[in-house]
Amino acid sequence: MAKKLVIKVTAGADAPERCSQAFTVAAVAVASGVEVSLWLTGESSWFALPGRAAEFALPHAAPLPDLLDAILAGGRITLCTQCAARREITEKDVLEGVRIAGAQVFVSEAMTDGTQALVY
Predict the structure, then answer these.
(1) CB-based contacts of 106: which residues, under 8 Å, 6+ apart?
(2) How confident is the model at residue 15, as a pLDDT?
(3) Cβ distance 54 to 74 under 8 Å?
């Protein structure tokens, strides 16, 4: 099993099942003791902002705020630099514990030995 899991989620409310799957896999991995780095890109970028996860609903899925909290508690969440800029989101806007970083950091994380990368 990979020692680290890097997950890039590109979907938000525009593709709720794909979005929920990414957050669920990340939270389950954290709960299983895997080192997790979740990247918010595209429409999922909005979930870096306070209160936005509470607006997301998908029947028969775990509440997104709970998944987000679990990931923040035991993993890392990163908002894509370009995605943040396109949405005029800054470091002062995001949830505590969320960082903003770019593609070079993503590639560096994904290419580390013992790492599995997934994209949703």
Answers:
(1) 6, 8, 39, 78, 80
(2) 97
(3) no
